[in-house]
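Justification of resources, computational component.

The compute hours requested in this renewal are based largely on the per-chain cost of generating structure records like the one below. Each record pairs the submitted sequence with a full structure-token output. That output is archived, and it is also reused by downstream analysis tasks.
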Amino acid sequence: MVDCKETKLRFRADQIFFSPVVVQETGEKVGYVCVQEGNDEDMIKDAKKMAKALLKEKDLKGTKIEAFSFKEVVQATEDEMAQIPSPASGKPTLTMPRDFNLMFETRVGAAVDSENVAYLRPETAQGIFINFKNVLGTSRQKIPFGIAQIGKAFRNEITPRNFIFRSREFEQMEVEYFIPPGDDVWPAFHKKWIADAKNFLLSVGLREDLMGWDIHKDDGLAHYAQACTDITFKFPFGEQELMGIAARGNYDLAQHSEGSGKALDYFDDQTKEKYIPHCIEPSLGVDRLALAIICSAYAEDEVGGEKRNLLKFSPKIAPIKAVVLPLLKNKEALVSTARDLFHQLQKRYNVAWDAAGAIGRRYRRADEVGVPFCITVDFETIEDDAGVTIRDRDSTEQVRVPIDEVIPYLSKAIDGY
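The structure output for this chain reads:
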């Protein structure tokens, strides 16, 4: 982390970026700019503003400069740090980068001393490794097999920001998929998990054009990792890590075994070998995934000459699956039939009720919160037994469906059967 000595603001050094300001004609470096992490457009905009002030200060107003080449502040030398301006003050008032503890420290027990220090877990995975032997003994699984877990994790973030993307308390999903050892074994499992992870993200509604890959090279790997690939996502504030798939070797089980004195090995009945399993770890933040789904789902179009804002949630992931709409709220026959259908649907899905306002306005309200289907009970429903109309959110097309076929219709659209 780094501090701004003038404004007293604190930044993560890997989340602020600096670039030299180089005169295009002569190649002379006249100073530096420094901006906070964001999307490319915003970072360049802020850098240009800072460069303009720098050129004016150097009596070089209007001089053309070369394109910015951003690097993380953690890569800056001591000489560069003395010239790099703070994003907060615009002056070279940043301290040298220094380490900080990402784990939350707390105390267990009434006394406050060094002997009862504890830390809130920064990831959920370690509980899986601790329980590996118990799961193995009670479930009688054979390798390869996986243990999945979801739960709270905590990080001592210096600058929590970007809505729910970076926070100090978050929900994390992880799988530890245990495999046999061997340098010729893990690459195939790792490759398959990367493909499966991408397919999962697409299945819940992420846009493929907003997804990318970040393959960690040797100097970017954790000391225990054999390989790691991140699936990235282009958020409005920049491209960021969404999900990581790491080949962790047997480091975790070996460390727990050494620390506890308990054997965490596995006996393979077929090969008659005993070994400490290696593992592949897909890890995903639930909050980040929810934000990516919302970003993917947001859309604007035009219906009937009017602009429409909507969320194109996949039906399987939409919080509200359908909304039931009686055409008129002051006609008891319409309301009664709609209520009966609403209560039937409630037994299986999370559905909404909306009887206020013009039907077109109610459609728009449903579109804005991503409801895939609007079910309207009208006079043809009660007088001609013609069923209800089901309107598709994305296409706005409507079909008539008999009341007793509404649940099968929704089941096929939402669940796939």
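The two ends are 52 Å apart (CA to CA). The chain has a mean pLDDT of 90.
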